[in-house]
Amino acid sequence: MNTSSRKVVIASKNPVKINAALDGLQRMFPEAEFIPEPANVASGVADQPMSDQETLQGALNRVAKAKAAYPDADYWVGIEGGVEATNGELAAFAWVVVQDREQLGKARSGAFFLPKAVQQLVEQGIELGEADDQVFGHSNSKQKGGAIGILTQNVLDRRELYEQAVVLALVPFRNKELYLNPPLKQQV
Predict the structure, then answer these.
(1) Which intervals hold domain Non-canonical purine NTP phosphatase/PRRC1 (predicted)?
(2) Which of 4, 28, 69, 108 has the lowest CB atom count within 10 Å?
(3) Does residue 183 form part of some domain?
(4) Domain for residue 150, yes or no?
(5) What is the CATH number of the domain that holds 17?
(6) Which domain does 47 fall in, by range?
């Protein structure tokens, strides 16, 4: 690897998550070359996280397990999709956690509400990707455009939704001086 090459362990083998992580990193650090290392690590939460907190915990767990399994990387990225009930509706979103050797960044994607038919299946314990496939007659939609891709006719797909959250999670890495060594408050 040359000096601008950075090894990135992405805590998933899902091509949507891998591409979202790489694209977000490349947008924030266009001068660098990123070498991906997809890793199949468990989230430590339900296959379908049902709350904001459980979803964030899944992303945090993925990063910790990826770092333990691949300690020689420059970055570790965990992406966890989840849902949360809000006023009788089910919102879908993802949490992204990025870690390097010095710090951790976290961000949540935008959220959107699922159609009732999908919501009912998820509430019965079916993972969102499988529920989408059943309702919309697709196959393996979670490794393609996902629910958001189906519902927007690919105006926005799952990779783009996650990529934006990767960029947001990288804000501390582009501003290390503010996040690692915050200025002291002035006494008034």
Answers:
(1) 11-173
(2) 4
(3) no
(4) yes
(5) 3.90.950.10
(6) 5-175
Backbone φ and ψ for 138, nearest 5 degrees, come out as -100, 175
Residue 185 lies in a domain: no
Residue 187 lies in a domain: no
Q: Which positions make up the binding site for Mg(2+)?
A: 72
pTM greater than 0.90: yes
Tell me the C-alpha distance between 186 and 188, whole Å: 6
- As separate numbers, helices (DSSP H) first and strands (DSSP E) second, the chain gives 8, 6
Q: Are strands 104-108 and 112-113 parallel, antiparallel or unpaired?
A: unpaired
User: 104: which strand partners?
Assistant: 99
pLDDT at res. 3:
58
Binding residues: 72-73
Annotated binding site for substrate: 72-73
Tell me how far apart the alpha carbons of residues 72 and 80 are, in angstroms, rounded to a whole number.
Answer: 23
List % helix, strand, coil for the chain (3-state, nearest 5). Answer: 40, 20, 35
- What secondary structure letter does DSSP report for 143? G
Q: Which two tokens stand for residue 75?
A: 């970055």
Structure tokens at 18: 């891998």
Question: How many other C-beta atoms can be found within 10 angstroms of the C-beta atom of residue 111?
Answer: 16
Name which of 144, 79, 149 is nearest 107 in CA terms: 79
Indicate the number of domains in the chain: 1
